[in-house]
Amino acid sequence: MTSASSLATSTKLDGLKFKTKKQVKTEKIMGKKSIKLSPKHGLNASITHCECCGREIGIALLGRLKNDAEAPMNIAMGLCEDCQKVINAKGLMIIEVRDGETGPNPYRTGRITGITKDAKERLFKDITSPICYMEQKMFEPMFGKFCK
């Protein structure tokens, strides 16, 4: 009678992949859609921030990335509850930017405000986007008292 170990060594098993007991147990607990750990960076976490106001929202666990790259420390991803409430109410989020800045990502000064649907309709009839940029020279006289 031959033992299992001698049978395994005598049979060609090239190309077959076997799972350890630990791998099978982990799959049962976490499921097959678990995060693949980076050998260098582990969970490879990033802090997620609101795309509008920049407030921290949470943490993204990215795991192993292409070429085992390190995840960026900060990621703009989604909206915080406060910004989402203004947008859901058909209001307008106004982000102050430096005078003369143009392009898709102008330099932000750090001041931001949200206005109601009624104020948006009275002040900014032509704006259809729920988030807009406003230069300092316009922002200061309109909202300077309220936003420090």
Q: Which key phrases capture this entry?
A:
148 residues, three-stranded mixed sheet, 22% strand
What does the oligomeric state look like here? single chain
Strand content: 15-25%
In the predicted model, the low-confidence regions spanning at least 5 consecutive residues are 1-13
Helix content: 25-40%
- Order of strands across the biggest sheet? 2-1-3
Number of strands: 6
Question: Given the helix and strand composition, which structural class is it?
Answer: alpha/beta
* Shape descriptor: elongated
- Radius of gyration over C-alpha positions, nearest whole angstrom: 26 Å
Number of helices: 5
Order of helices and strands: HHEEEHEEHEH
Main pleated sheet: 3 strands, mixed
Care to describe what's here?
The chain has 148 residues and is α/β, with parallel strands linked by helices. Among the domains are: 36-79, no CATH class; 89-143, no CATH class. The chain is built from five helices and six strands. The chain has helices spanning 4-10, 21-30, 81-88, 117-123, 136-143, and strands spanning 45-49, 56-61, 74-76, 92-97, 108-115, 131-135. Strand 1 and strand 2 (56-61) form a beta hairpin. The longest helix is centred in the first third of the chain and has 10 residues, at 21-30. The radius of gyration is 26 Å and the shape is elongated. The chain starts with a helix and ends in a 5-residue tail after the last helix. The relative contact order is 0.12. Mean pLDDT is 81; it is low at 1-13.
